[in-house]
Amino acid sequence: MAKRISIDVEGYHHGGLPIPAASRVGPLVMTGGVSGIDPETRALPDDLDEQARLMFWNLERIMTAAGGSMDSIVRMTVYVKVPEARQAVNRQWLVAFPDEASRPARHTLVNEALPANMLVQCDATAFVGD
Question: What CA–CA distance (Å, rounded) separates 33 from 89?
């Protein structure tokens, strides 16, 4: 049986909690909640577009640390605090996944309970070859 491996990246955290950015068992990678934390300042910007950009950038860094890439992602769930945030997510989605014939499945949900000034968050499931 494959051993579980915790995946962490520089400057990304879950508020000091003992939770890794992702976990990998064999080729399966599942992230925790990925937000738009700026790894330089370790803060969440107030700007929606910047949060969306950083969310996808952090996700890409996590996938790389797990041994994969954005192409390894098979499904994402995106949580938005307000429905209008979908437009910012969609703009970054097209940057991250430009090939319409090769995009992960996605489900977007409104979650008004996202903490503080967090406007977007996602999680992802990926299959990373050994």
Answer: 15
pLDDT digits (tens, 9 = 90+) for 49-80: 999 999 999 999 999 999 999 999 999 999 99
pLDDT for residue 2: 83
Q: Please list, residue by residue across 8-24, b when 16 or more beta carbons sit within 10 angstroms of its beta carbon and e when fewer do.
A: ebeebeeeeeeebbbbb
DSSP for 89-127, written as a single string: HHHHHHHH---TTS--EEEEEE-TT--TT--EEEEEEEE
With 0-12 / 13-18 / 19 or more C-beta atoms within 10 angstroms meaning exposed / middle / buried, residue 4 is exposed
Cβ atoms < 10 Å from Cβ of 47: 14
**Structural domains of the chain sorted by starting position, each given as residue range(s) with its CATH number in brackets:** 4-127 (3.30.1330.40)
